[in-house]
Specification:
single chain; about 375 residues; TATA-Binding Protein; 6-stranded antiparallel beta sheet
Length: about 375
Amino acid sequence: MKRSFLSAIFIVSLFCANIIAQGHGMYTLVRADMKGNIENLGNQVKTILESNNFNILYYGDVATPDLVREDKEDICGNKAKLFVVSNDEYIKMLTSYGNKYLVAGFLRIGLYQTPKGIQLIITDPETINRIVFNDLDVTKYNNVVNKSIKFKNNLLNDLNVLTAGTKMNKEMEPIRSAEDLREASKDMFMMVGHMTLFQDTDQFPVIYMEKNTTGKAGLKNLIDKTLGNISKFKPNQDDVEYRWTSSPSDLNWEIKAQMYSPDSTAYLLGISRKRTEAISFKIVGDETETNKCPGIDHLCAFPVEVLIMMKGDQLIIQTQREMFRMDMYFWDAGMGAFMSHANMPSMLDDSIDRALIGHISDLR
């Protein structure tokens, strides 16, 4: 009976996904099947971004499922490279509604290899902002969406200066309708909750809070303390034993990107680690004989956002609940994958807490 019930949930989930297939994707495929060297294409993208007033916060490799494969016969050998960038005018727009919206400030662009060639993909800033800003009233919400659409189109035009491959600008899964995004409809019902950061405090919880008596100096001290905690992080036994990995260093959380709000009273930090990337892509990918690493098309799901900011006379640290974040970026993996890895989000929550504040938070 239990198996039949879970199967029914999974079928409903897939049915809903098909209904909204014409909606808003978490990712946009910009150009497809480009030939050539991924390093050379990365350099071309870097030049385009810099010439169009984007600040490159991070550029480097992303781990593929090969990292967590003991059987070397299953190695795909494909590479993936990630840009995390920002744009000053875009950040000003986001934070004009409040510094908490700095959480949407990382723009992510990825290159990944497939048997057909190299693909160029972005996280869709319009879709991200439809989720992040859905606690605003309808007038302000529509204003943000319209500005986000304009910004996204300009970004796509910039990237399509590339002539390699085929121009696509295609919405990619997970895909949701405008209505579902506005209403913060939950996807994996009974498991996740509503798709919103600021209406449901469980989704973007405060994991640390302290009194601030020294203003921006206090914020700087907390940031330095947090960065120090990350550098000293050691995985606990549950973290180590969760999945096979080739090296203990794959479990270390790394700082990928960081930036301040225009008024310097909020700070956005992006962290990731190789093993979490590799496992996530392995879970979501539907492997075939010809493509053993399909899940790397979700590479722009990382890094994980951490917001450190002044709020009244308090300093707070917030980061997304990992079950929510997995639903947000990896919903298309399906209910079966979520059920099979149901303990992964809580393990990651604990690991991230320990990396940021040195212990498991008692505020979640």
